Amino acid sequence: MLTFKAEVLKSKQKSDGTYNVKIRMTYNREVKRLATNIFVRQEDLTKSFKLKNPKFIQEADAIVRHYQEISAKLQLDINNYTLGDIMAHLKGEQRKSQEIDFIQFSREWIASATIKGVENYTSAINAFVKFLGTDKLNIHQLTISVLRGFMDHLIKKREEKIRMLQKQGKRIPSNRIVSLYLGSIRHLFNEATRTYNDYDRDIILIPHSPFENFKIPKQEATRKRAISAKEILKIYQMPYQLDAKGREKKGRFNLAKDCFILSFGLIGMNSADLYSCIDLNNDVITYYRAKTTDRRNDKAKMKVKVLPIIKPLLEKYRDRTGRRVFNFYLHYTTPDSFNKAINYGLKQIGEILHIDDLEYYAARHSWATLAVNKVGIDKYTVHSALNHIDEAMKVTDIYIERDFKIENEANSKVLKYVFGSGLQK
Question: I need a labelling partner for 13 at 20 to 30 A (CA). Which of 61, 221, 253, 266 fits?
Fold first, then answer.
């Protein structure tokens, strides 16, 4: 026989001095307990820890009756249910009545997420809350009309920003926000669905998705940041900034000049990888691309040969402690601060050479563009050299151990095209 009884456990006092009223379930000599939303204090209880406050007695009795009614429908005498099955069913029925705050869920999910780019979700939710004018939203109120309103809001804000940038004579960045933010909201909604819907037990707390009939605009193509071979050569040939004694300054201008050439000569190596790489053997740097290592079975492994034109820079910035390949980490506390210093210096270089909005990532874009358009390297090799994910070849890649020979041969051709054969010796 299945029985229910409200009880308070003396040993389970909370830090605020309250006790949670539990519903004790007994079935076939097995006991389990379900928590309730009733919290009582010492004065609400008898000396033997029985409820004495009429208000809480009434609330507990109502929960017991509710559970009894649900259990009666299970026909326990016919079906071979365990107490665990009964408890799971009651929890499911309990969950069906709960409200899900989408904003609260999203913030909790973000706080526990370990994926890269989690800050994008934070920005999206902050923008969404600002649009709503409240930090609470029942998930059933997340409708198509709300999404359309949010999209119009983002478009309007972008138009205002464009007008301001035009007045200031500044560059207009590509439009990623609308697609990025709405895509983030969709991902968070899907995470909520996975969390709250139990399809095995037919407990569907979120039955419909507003995204089924809502089309998120495609993201605009990123701005092309490639520069010409002549411009890369000009950066390489630029004189260093010197101090009063004629010695090379330790500053962001000179750092930017060198790191841009380092990146270009190392097949577009990201600043985070320059900062963190630790493996140099026989003039070959082995690293795992930080941007995608968590999303790849091979950890985004890459091997790039240090060609002659790059060797002086390798020696210049070599980590003499041997802990890493380069010593940048000794001068900058984080990869982000290192990257910001480079880009600051590149803005100075860009102004001198009349290259609009020059930035570090242009080295990577330029390597790929020159490889395809000027050197005749096939796109698949360039794709591989940049260490991008090939969705069509994922299964095949499991069986192939890359030696990176083809990628490094392509790099040799690109550097020869830009700097000439004389500098390759």
Answer: 61
Beta strand pairing call for 279-281 and 301-305: unpaired
Based on the fold, state whether residues 68 and 35 are members of the same structural domain. yes
Q: Which two tokens stand for residue 270?
A: 């990201």
Residue at 224 is within a domain: no
Which of the four pLDDT bands, split at 50, 70 and 90, describes residue 67? confident
Beta strand 284-288 with 301-305: parallel, antiparallel or unpaired? antiparallel
Q: How many CB atoms are closer than 10 A to CB 415?
A: 24
User: CA 106 to CA 121: how far, in whole Å?
Assistant: 8
Does residue 75 sit in the same domain as residue 124? no
**What are the tens digits of pLDDT across the range 348-360?**
999 999 998 899 9
CB atoms inside a 10 Å sphere around CB 347:
15
SS3 424: helix
Give the sign of the dihedral formed by CA 315, CA 319, CA 320, CA 324: negative
Domain-terminating residue out of 185, 213, 241: 213
- DSSP sequence for 143-188: -HHHHHHHHHHHHHHHHHHHHHHHHHT-------HHHHHHHHHHHH
Instruction: Please tell me whether residues 249 and 336 are part of one structural domain.
Output: yes
Q: What pLDDT sits at residue 75?
A: 73
**If DSSP codes are grouped into helix, strand and coil, which group holds residue 50?**
coil
Judge whether residue 372 has pLDDT over 90. Answer: yes
3-class secondary-structure state, position 271: helix
């091997």: which residue's tokens?
Answer: 303
Q: Beta-carbon neighbour count of residue 251 at 10 Å?
A: 15
* pLDDT, tens only, 137-174: 999 999 999 999 999 999 998 888 878 877 776 666 66
* Mean pLDDT across 93-120: 81
400 pLDDT more than 70: no
For residue range 120-140, list pLDDT tens digits in order.
Answer: 999 999 999 999 999 999 999
- Same domain, yes or no: 308 and 175: no
Residue 220, domain member (yes or no): no
- Residue 414 CB burial class (10 angstroms; 0-12, 13-18, ≥19): buried
* pTM beyond 0.70, yes or no: no
What backbone phi and psi angles, to 5 degrees, belong to 341?
A: -65, -40
Task: Kindly state whether residue 279 falls inside one of the protein's structural domains.
Answer: yes
Q: Which residue range(s) make up the domain with 23?
A: 3-96
